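#onboarding

Welcome to the new folks! Below is a worked example of what a typical request in this channel looks like: someone posts a single protein sequence, and someone else replies with the predicted structure as tokens. Don't worry about understanding the tokens yet, we'll cover that in week two.

Example request:
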Amino acid sequence: MDDVRLVVSELVGNVVQHVVPDTCLSRPGAARRIDVVLRMWPRWLFIGVTDEDSTLPDLPLGEFVSPELAGELSAAVLPDSGRGLFIVHRLVDFMWCEPGEAGGKTVWCRFDLDCRDADSGLWCSHGHQIPWDLCGVTA
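Example response:
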């Protein structure tokens, strides 16, 4: 569940930090609309964060550095922006971006689930438990 919370926090934080709604391009700091959707299917948990900016983010295509070297690098060699999306990319099983029909976009993430213990909730493929009540599901 901590992974899910962190992913939602990073994606919403990106909207707050970087997004300028298409209708307010001349007014930085204008109000923003952020929609967060959680959808659950038997084997997947989908998270979608929608905003009003049509500019698509630069989604990570792979690892910036190998995980073995990451602990040895100083922050000075890491990119100035996009680190949150790298974190999200490492935590989820799949992520993509979908342009909105009337502008804006949705960044989607998918957690692959494993129904090991139906009484206590689901488990993501990274071994973290996701309680049933997170998505309004009753066991």
